[in-house]
Specification:
single chain; 258 residues; mainly alpha; three-stranded antiparallel sheet; globular; transmembrane; DUF92_TMEM19; Integral membrane family protein; membrane
């Protein structure tokens, strides 16, 4: 089944590929002077301080690596969903703050926990990809959008209303999947509907934001009359194409298999 990846509890290749990098970096930090032995004799105190910093860095990296291993091996239960989201939201806080208000982050945390419980790490990856692409599109030509009065409020940082509105259909699918509504025969249907809901919303967001930034001619969808960029219900060829590509990309993420 094309969307069977959402039922798999392990993290996709994204985190899997990071682990060798951590090991490589750890090995380098453990022996910072091996490649330059003559430097160790120049300042013993500096060498000692550097070694202590390196050991601290190694310890921090070890914690992160163990956290990643824990997330990878955790089955989709409420406990693992909560723990995984705490880890990911802590590590990804700089990105979250750039795209969401504080109350928006709270709403996103609830969404992430529900998604992980219903569809595992692969479902979470889908929502995370949606957030990254949507945030990037919102930030495109922000100064121009602000000057024209068509930019999102708070420099594009979306609040809980936007999070809930974007994920409402997906949350319904998640609850139906968790409670086994329809039995095994409907499991794949809830997964497919979950992916489709976010693809649809991402297409809407990207087409709107790219249309505001690059749309040369915008038409009101109900009358096809030419209207200014940023008009509610207006579409452009540039925005429509960007939205289509974004939805296809997100659908591909939903199709990925570990």
């Amino acid at each position: 089944m094309a969307f069977s990846t959402l039922s798999m509890p392990r993290l996709p290749l994204l985190l899997h590929f990071q682990r060798p990098k951590l090991s490589f970096l750890t090995s380098n930090l453990q022996t910072p002077f091996d490649q330059f032995p003559h430097l160790s004799t120049l300042n013993p105190r500096h060498h000692q301080r550097s070694s202590m910093k390196a050991q601290a860095s190694v310890s921090d990296l070890g914690i992160v690596e163990r956290a990643i291993q824990l997330v990878q091996s955790s089955p989709p239960t409420w406990q693992s969903a909560l723990l995984s989201n705490i880890i990911i939201f802590t590590l990804g806080s700089p990105l979250l703050v750039s795209g969401l208000s504080l109350s928006g982050i709270g709403a996103a945390f609830l969404l992430g926990t529900l998604t992980w419980r219903a569809f595992g790490s692969s479902g979470f990856l889908l929502v995370a990809t949606y957030f990254v692409i949507g945030t990037a599109a919102t930030k495109v030509k922000m100064a121009q959008k602000e000057a024209q009065g068509v930019a999102e409020k708070r420099k594009g940082r979306r609040g809980p209303g936007s999070v809930i509105g974007s994920s409402a259909a997906g949350c319904v699918c998640a609850f139906l999947s968790i409670n086994g509504v329809g039995g095994e025969a409907f499991t794949r249907l809830w997964e497919l509907a979950f992916v489709a809901s976010f693809c649809t919303k991402l297409s809407d967001t990207v087409s709107s934001e790219i249309g505001k930034a690059y749309g040369k001619t915008t038409y009101l969808v109900t009358t096809f009359k030419v209207v200014p960029r940023g008009t509610e219900g207006a579409v452009s060829a540039e925005g429509t194409l960007a939205g289509l590509l974004a939805s296809v990309l997100l659908a591909f993420v939903g199709y990925l298999k570990d």
